[in-house]
Amino acid sequence: MYKKYITVFLMASMVIASSWVCARELKINRIAAKPAFQMEYLDASMTEDKHSFIEMISSVSSGQRIVDYEVLEKTMRYQLSDKDYEALTRIVEAEAGGEDQDGKLLVANVVLNRMNSEKFPDTVWEVVMQREQGIAQFSPTVDGRYQSVKVSEDTKAAVERALYGEDISQGALYFCAREKADSEKLEWFDRKLTRLFAYGSHEFFQ
Prior knowledge:
By secondary structure, this protein is mostly helical. It has helices at 2-33, 35-71, 82-96, 101-116, 124-129, 140-143, 145-148, 153-163, 183-192, and strands spanning 131-132, 135-136, 174-176, 195-199, 202-205.
């Protein structure tokens, strides 16, 4: 008989416990369904998500900018034909073969500056071969140096720097080696042009 009462008591306890759990879940669901609770939860979630997003962006971008600069590819400013490229490397070698790489770069800059100027022809080859009143603009084209030079790797490197847009010429359109130039030509340079600077054995003018 006692077993019967104990069994009834246990079953009643289980029913009461189940009812309490169900009532608590119902209460929670009602609270969760309220707009105020939803907004508060949404705000908290958005704040957490925003914080996580900012942390992610900071983590990614902290080193990414450095990587971008390191892998950034240079773009060639001048796209020359084979004929123009050969003319440029040969005239640089002939005019500045004994100069350091910056000295060679300066000669390449002058040629390209002329090509970009309305006062001179539109291609490198035409600039190099230009004559004014029968006088060659670049003496190596008539004394044989242009044809006979062997273009060095250093000259090619200087020309490449110029083709990628490096310009240290201050806009120079003329240059001369004062020690080697004839007096009449030097007089014209000094009288007609503005001297910019000297580098190596050359003086540069505009």
